[in-house]
Amino acid sequence: MSNRPHAPPPHIIALDGREVDLLHWMYARSDIKQIRGNPEKVIAAIDEYHDKHNKLMNIGDVKGPTILDIIAQRKPSLMIELGGYVGYSAVLFGNALKAHGGKLLSIEVNPEMAAVANQLVELAGLREHVQIMVGASNVVLEELVREEKQINEVELIFLDHWQKLYLPDLWLLEDLGVIVPGRTMLIADNVIMPGAPDYLEWVKATPDEKKKLLEKADVGGRRPKPELIYETVVPEFDTDFGKDGLAITKVL
Ligand code: SAM
């Protein structure tokens, strides 16, 4: 463990430098001029790095298209992402949102990852459609809603940070009053592998079942809204890391 005064907690330290290596590899490419300003080429290059060099925990080209279809159908003016990593999903979704003038707000706790993501968003020419904020999801969400009043409803949110935070962060959003019947859609990644059983149980439960769950839940000061009615489907995918699923939840 580092003795640096500002050493990050162990769970947010970069894996092994591969994320910064991705940037060096990208800018050393002979076709960097063609990649600049072209989001599809940025995505293809990150996929190539993932396939040929080091595995990266990006949404990837297997699960990504399902989310692009949802963006194209719902055309959110603002999409929120929890967990940005190197910005693969930020470039992918930012480009899809650009088609109808929408924006992505990506919240990333690790400033090193956010720096890499910012650089790749810039390279893709998506600066006006993607904003990356550094901070823990719960802290940033609460600031944006309560203090800055920048968000009064969640149109589309992608939960892709740590699975154990999915449910507490959903409870926070319920408490903040920004989960809106008939308007909000939630998409959560990795719900099969590594899995998010408590989150899945909540988004699949009826209001009565949720009231029962709350009798023994530790809500950590948040005020969940069990009366919200969720409808969730979990399409499954064969990914590089094994079978996985996305939980896609409509708020009725
Ligand atoms: N969405 C990215 C993509 O598809 O390209 C992948 C995200 S990766 C699976 C998870 C990221 O969540 C990591 O970069 C990690 O630092 C970040 N993270 C973990 N806990 C977080 C928190 N509490 N708030 C914001 N980001 C967090």
UniProtKB/TrEMBL annotation:
Keyword S-adenosyl-L-methionine applies: yes
**Entries under SUPFAM superfamilies matching the protein:** S-adenosyl-L-methionine-dependent methyltransferases
Asked if the record carries the keyword Methyltransferase, the reply is yes
What is the name of the protein in this document? catechol O-methyltransferase
Keywords, A to Z, come to: Catecholamine metabolism, Methyltransferase, S-adenosyl-L-methionine, Transferase
Identify the domain of life. Answer: Eukaryota
Write down the Gene3D superfamilies for this protein, in alphabetical order: Vaccinia Virus protein VP39
Enumerate the InterPro entries for this protein.
SAM-dependent_MTases_sf, SAM_O-MeTrfase
Q: Which organism is it from?
A: Penicillium cosmopolitanum
Q: Which family does it belong to?
A: Belongs to the class I-like SAM-binding methyltransferase superfamily. Cation-dependent O-methyltransferase family.
